[in-house]
Amino acid sequence: MSEAAKGNGHGEGRDVGKAVPRGLGTLTKKDFVSDQEVRWCPGCGDYAILSAVQGFMPELGVPPHKLVFVTGIGCSGRFVYYMDTYGVHGIHGRAPAIATGLATARPDLAVWIITGDGDALSIGGNHLIHALRRNINVKILMFNNQIYGLTKGQYSPTSEEGKVTKSTPFGSLDHPFNPVALALGAEASFVARTIDVDRQHLVEVLRQASAHQGTAFIEIYQNCNVFNDDAFIALTGKETKGLNQIRLEHDKPVVFGPNGERCVYVEFDGSLRVGETADVPQELIYTHDAHRDEPSAAFALAHLSRGPTQPTAIGVFRDIQRPVYGELMERQIEMATQKLGAGDLAKLLNSGDTWEVK
What we know:
This protein is of the alpha/beta class. Helix content is 29%, strand content 18%.
């Protein structure tokens, strides 16, 4: 990484990486690891995610100088310093806006957004939903630790009701966002959820997201061992994860538990419920269809639990194809050029009401 990328780790609003073009050859994890010291709290789940992403990047066959990582503000914002690619550390919540411009103007680049639950769902909420509905060709990794970590432990938009924090000493009154349901409600074309410490599952979700054309939204449950430790222990604990991880696989019946003893089934009113496999007729066990255009089933899967303390669906909820915003824009410009001729920028700037300031 260039000298411009070095600094104190807080370079908000500036270009923080200028990767040097290199021959493609055989890429390895080392090609994506910067020379910057990784600085998160010891034990933070961000380390596992960073390692998984760096290890996965060679699979893409995309050289570092064709990759751009865009971050907002928060612990996840440091991510851009540790990737030896191009990168932009934007201002709070604006990573989707920056990435929209990049991906639209430079379709030859692979653009990834790294954000957190506070950055993406609070001040950045509007930017996130509009990137999702437009179907920009970007991949969004949203680290969800259900807390504000960088600012030392205030409740976040995904904290559970009653959460006692420094900013809510008597418990939070806010109802939390369900990030997967939010993305589905914004008509995102690819929506998934995975877990920081499950490297195999995380990489498989990244693999499917990278193959998707359009916006891919991935919620990653990420442990904050300082301010919200073990928030996801039901899904990560050795004794409990088998009982609570509902792993979604396209075109397969949704059964879970150490021996498949539990399942997701279709209730008489069309809703999805969790039940005992032995008590549910085979024909009522739900078979997951990630490519179903109509999102109601994916939305129901997102609401199987009220939080990660109960059996919770992970994997790809939705993966459909619809027009990508940048491609639509290029076609529109081409059509307008054919109809109206090439534009004249100077003429446009001097048209209408103009005046000279002396």
